[in-house]
Amino acid sequence: MSFAATNERVWKEKATEKEDAARMMSRIAMGLSALCFVLAFTAMSAHWNYSRICSFVDQRQQAQAASYGEEEFTVILKTQYCS
């Protein structure tokens, strides 16, 4: 095997290694972006649920105050979910 053939083989192996590394970095980047999307979606969903529960508690408190005059139930809910 001549020096040129050996040099060409080594060059091809290095090129393949660089392509593999680029593919791996691309996969890592896609995985991280997917993870960020999932985390953002989870945070948004949690915030929406938190807001929905607190608005429900406020409506419930107004209804109870109008009908019963008691606030124990809503105070318990508010301290659990909205503090």
Short descriptors:
about 80 residues; mainly alpha; 2 helices
Brief write-up:
The protein has helices at residues 3-67, 72-81. It has 83 residues and is mostly helical.
The Cα radius of gyration reads 30 Å
As residue ranges, the low-confidence spans are none
Number of helices: 2
- The first-to-last residue Cα distance is 77 Å
Total discrete domains: 1
User: Main β-sheet, in a few words?
Assistant: none
The assigned structural class equals mainly alpha
Number of strands: 0
Give the topology string: H per helix, E per strand: HH
Shape: rod-shaped
Helical proportion, percent range:
over 70%
Could you report the average pLDDT, rounded to the nearest whole number?
75
Structure description:
There is one protein chain. This protein has 83 residues and is mostly helical. It has one domain. The protein contains 2 helices and no strands. It has helices at 3-67, 72-81. α1 (3-67) packs antiparallel against α2 (72-81). The protein starts with a helix and ends with a helix. The mean pLDDT is 75.
Sequence-ordered SSE layout with sheet pairings:
Elements: H1 3-67, H2 72-81
